[in-house]
Every structure is written in structure tokens, then in C-alpha cells.
Design a protein that fits this description.
Order of helices and strands of chain A: HHEEEEEEHEEHHHHHH
Helix content of chain A: 40-55%
CATH architecture of the largest domain in chain A: Sandwich
CATH class of the largest domain in chain A: Mainly Beta
Number of strands of chain A: 8
Number of domains of chain A: 2
CATH superfamily of the largest domain in chain A: Jelly Rolls
Distance between the termini of chain A: 39 Å
Oligomer: homodimer
Low-confidence stretches of chain A: none
Strand content of chain A: 15-25%
Mean pLDDT of chain A: 93
Largest interface: A-B, 28 and 28 residues
Strand order of the largest sheet of chain A: 1-8-3-6
Shape of chain A: globular
Number of helices of chain A: 9
Largest sheet of chain A: 4 strands, antiparallel
Structural class of chain A: alpha+beta
DNA sequence: GTTTCGTGTTGACAAATGTCAACGTTTCAG
DNA sequence: CTGAAACGTTGACATTTGTCAACACGAAAC
């Protein structure tokens, strides 16, 4: 499990940092079942997670308590509520597992220590931030300019594996449409 | 004009960096009229801009060539297509002035030099990135979970100055609704 | 093995929003 | 100052999407 993170870091940097074992030791491991909540909105987000296996859902509730999903994170990617984690503010989002998942977690203290002592860790953080940002921008632009059907087509092209891996309910929530509309539109392909 | 940037950097860092004049000299100034395009999608984004005065619109076209606005940047804020700028890839977005504007621009070479030689500049960059990311996340979540009317109310509360400063057309495009719907819903307040 | 619950599908209808057209007003270039 | 173009508003109507309800199916719980 830790090896997945080791490999991820090596791939990211294109080289092996000297103190990689120190870096890896700063994380602790978590084995979670399906449907476990690891962050509730209103709480302070205490960790950044690396998803070694499984799948996480980042979502918000609207005023009728419907969930809409901002992001879906699969293995070999990072997940957190960075704004809450970085600014120590209450989280505006919730995170839970949608599959049994293995996570590697790093707390704020460990994170800051690595940021200061391992220059390459700072670099990895910047890469994660940039990737997260790029992802968000992309998502806003698809949301704003595409119809429900176009968004489905977009997902099939851009993240095809999700279509077969996840429940229709979750995909609909990710696309910002109702489950029924999603079911109907699928028929029109 | 340059003084606005100086003050912005000092405010951000909470202190004056030693080589601030070196930093400032790396920027060049631009005076633009209303409606000037400074980035077209497909081009590589060559600069990061600091908006000393005026207002910029970041937008995309859908397949019918309607514009939708991802972001609106007013004075004392940064604007770029960071993904294109950082990765030297074709931009997916367009940027133009919506008011006469004074900009300070830094190119990639200058940017990288400052990143390497001025640690605080790296820090400012990270702050910009974090703020941009936070802003995007916020925007996705409002888009996905709010109705048109709720989005109008949200804008009035969150960025009230924009309502009086910008054209209805632009605001509608920022909220992801048609100009007519916007006009009608305004009446219902 | 049976029950129970969540999921996916479908129908009927309602609500929200978009589109097209018309028209008065404002803005801006010449 | 003046004419053309863009903007804002309103009406009529079309389209998209949501909501509620019913039901079949399969997975998980007992």
C-alpha cells in the first residue's frame, strides 16, 4: 500500500528523493469499507489522503438535502478539502468512500514539516494543486456550456471507466442531473 | 500603476521583500481599451496579468458560439490561463477587457526566474493558485446546487459590486443563464 | 430461503429555463 | 449631432429537466 505512494511520488518527480522513506513514514494507513464518511461539512479537514485503492466521493448538500458530487477520486490520486485543510476553516464539502478503500493520510503537522524540510514535497504539492485547479476549471466550463446529454457524452469520452464502475445514481449526481433524466438520456445514445 | 502591485505584494506577504524592485521591474505595463482580447482559445497563454485597474472576463464559447463566463477579475487581482501558461498548452479559454484596464504583465521566462530566485514570489504564486482553486470549487458548488434565482441572490450577496458595475448580459453569462431569464428573475426580487 | 431495501426504469405531469421576435432605450463611432 | 448597433425588457411558445409515483430487479441481511 505504501509502495503505491512511493511509486506515485517517483513518477511525479521523475526521480527518487533521498529521504523518501522519511516522507512515507509521515503517512498512516486506513482501511475503509464502502460508504464511510471521512469528512463532514462544518468540520475542519485534518488530513490529505492518497487513495491507494478504491474510490472517494466529494459532495455537497443543497437545501433539500440532495447531494451533488463535485469530484470523484480513484486510486493513485490525492483527495482532501484543501481550503479547509490549508486555512483551518470549516469544510464546505463532505467526503466518503464509495468502494472499500485503502488510504494513506497525512496530517497538517506532518504536511508542514515535509513542506519545509523536503523541497520536492513542496513541488509535489504544487503539482497537486495545479492539477486540482485545472480539473475544476475544466469542470466549470463543461457544466456551464453543455446540456445534460452533452455532459454524459463528455464523461464517456473523458472518464469512460467511471461509467461502468459507479452506480447510475452517483454518476447522475456527478453530472448535476437527476437519476431519472440520466436513465432516459442514456437510452438516446 | 506599479505601486498598486507593490502594495499588493506587501499586503500578501505581510512584509516587504528585499528585492521588490527587481520583482516589479520584471513586469511590463499595458493600457487597454474596452473589449480588447488578450487571449484567444487555441493560443498559448504567454503572460500572467495583474489587474491594476479595470476588469477582465474569462470565457468560453459553446458550440453555438454563445459565450459563458467562467470568471470576472477586477482590480488588485491576478488573471491568466494558468494551465496554458504553466504547461505551454493551447488555452481552452478566452480573456478580454470589459472596461478600459491597466495591466501589469509578466512572461514565462521572467516568472520562472522569479520563482527560482525570490522565495517569496513562489509563496505569492502558491497563494494565487490556492485562491483560484478555492474560487473554482466554490463556483462549481454554487452552480450545481442552486437554481437561477438562487444564483442571482448569491451574486448579490457575495459580489454585490459586480451587479451594478457590469452589464446584464455579462452577469447573465457569468451566472450561466440567458439574458432574458436574468431580466425576468430580477423582477422577482 | 425469504425478506427488505436500494437501484434503475418508465410514465405522467409540472416547473424552470431557453428561444425567437418585437420594440424602446442607450451607447458610441463618425 | 446623428445614425447604427448593441442592450434591456417583455410576450408567446418550445424544450429541457425535475418531481412524484409505480414497479421490476437484484443484492444484502436475517
Amino acid at each position: 500500500m505504501v509502495n503505491k505512494l512511493r511509486q506515485h511520488i517517483i513518477d511525479r518527480l521523475g526521480s527518487t528523493p533521498d529521504n523518501i522513506d522519511d516522507v512515507l513514514a509521515t503517512f498512516h494507513t486506513l482501511k475503509l469499507k464502502r460508504n464511510e464518511v471521512i469528512l463532514k461539512q462544518g468540520e475542519i479537514c485534518k488530513y490529505v489522503y492518497f487513495v491507494a485503492s478504491g474510490c472517494l466521493q466529494v459532495f455537497v448538500y443543497d437545501k433539500e438535502m440532495n447531494e451533488t458530487t463535485r469530484d470523484i477520486i480513484t486510486e493513485n490520486n490525492w483527495c482532501s478539502e484543501l481550503i479547509s485543510f490549508g486555512g483551518q476553516q470549516p469544510a464546505t464539502e463532505n467526503i466518503r468512500t464509495v468502494e472499500p478503500s485503502d488510504l494513506l493520510a497525512i496530517d497538517r503537522q506532518g504536511f508542514q514539516r515535509l513542506m519545509e524540510t523536503v523541497p520536492q514535497f513542496d513541488k509535489v504539492y504544487k503539482q497537486i494543486l495545479e492539477a486540482s485547479y485545472a480539473n475544476s476549471v475544466y469542470r466549470i466550463n463543461t457544466f456551464v456550456s453543455l446540456t445534460a446529454l452533452e455532459r454524459i457524452k463528455w464523461l464517456m469520452e473523458y472518464r469512460p471507466k467511471l461509467m461502468s464502475r459507479l452506480s447510475s445514481k452517483l454518476i447522475a449526481s456527478y453530472l448535476g442531473i437527476s437519476q431519472e433524466t440520466f436513465s432516459r438520456l442514456k437510452g438516446k445514445l
